[in-house]
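Late entry, evening session. Most of the bench is empty. Finally got around to the prediction I had been postponing all week. Sequence below, unchanged from the version circulated by S.P.
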Amino acid sequence: MIATVIGVYTFYILVRLYVSVMQIGFINQMKRKGAVLMGEKEYRDAAEYAVAKEKLSMIEAMAEYLLFFLWIDGLIGWLDGALMGQSALLHTIAAVMGMILINGFVMLPFGWISKFKIDATYGFNRSSTGQFVKDTLIATLLSLVIGTVIVVIVSEIITSSELWWLWSFCFIFGVVVLLNMFFPTIRALFFDKVTPLEDPELRDEIESLMKRTGFVSSGVFISDASKRDARLNAYFGGLGKSKRVVLFDTLIQKLSPQELIAVLGHELGHFAHGDLYKNIAMVGVMLLGMFALFGNLPQELYLQLGVSQSPHIVMMLFILLLPVVSFVMMPIMGMVSRHNEYEADRTGAELGGAEHLVNALKKLITENKSFPLSHPLYRFMHTTHPPVIERLRALGADIGVSADEGYADPCPKD
């Protein structure tokens, strides 16, 4: 049974690496062609940035593979044995949270390299080392607090019901919904400082736009995201009465009011089509499948690992194999998401004007150094948004090049 688990995980890593190799080769090939949607220098920079990030992702995958082998080859048993003598509850909490902390510590250098080497080289990072350490510590403490509560409750469910995997799914799905509801508040409390939008004319336009789609929010806010990163972004966060519109200050600085309205119109399109609830439902289906799988792992696996089928071991195996299941589910979720993005673009064009949305998308990919093309396999396995070149074509924009010249990234719209 262990051989099967190792084989599946090995196949998952090999596919990840293969997809990355294909993406890097594709980008390098397209980089040698004439620039599209951005200037020559911006086009080359976007290509080099995408390749650098993909190479780092490949190294991360190999580190993840090594970590997987260490856990399977005895680290799970060692950590379990080291905690013997503790109370059952403390043993469970320490084992599961210990695994999370060890994984986080091993992967932490990759986050630092991404921010302070790659992002800094291409002009994105504005965060200091001190800010990075502070953010990491806050995120770790939040994970420990929330994670401990989850572990305690799931452990109790496992020990009290034969259908523990079903009731655990119901509980975890409830946690996912709550986190989505309170995400803007948590982010504002611990990470970004948000202040109400002060421009009365722009605020009135945004509020008028929201009324047209029936979107009721707790306000329009500006985030000081530029203290960490130069990218442009915005999000509609929360559920129910906690919904709010948050604009990054970088977005306000770079887009015209008309372009900003078109971008918000796109986001409101997601609300009008119920995409947030669809996404939560898809996550629910994925979680249900995962819990059903892990709730029925054969006893043989635990025997070969030399551990008991106790709550903390079940949860540790869940954490260990979670990336594989997520990777398998991602193409399905990506197809649905890409379809939703086309629909949201149509709404954004209707609410804010197609010309303004086109201009905004061009600015976004230039400022964020987003290479406008991707290998079909990479797009299928990873992306949640259609290629921007196809989004612009769908909006009726003149791309300046034809699909016959190789500047095509077919992505179904329906």
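Two things to note before I forget:
The radius of gyration is 23 Å.
The first helix runs from residue 2 to 31.
Will write this up properly tomorrow.
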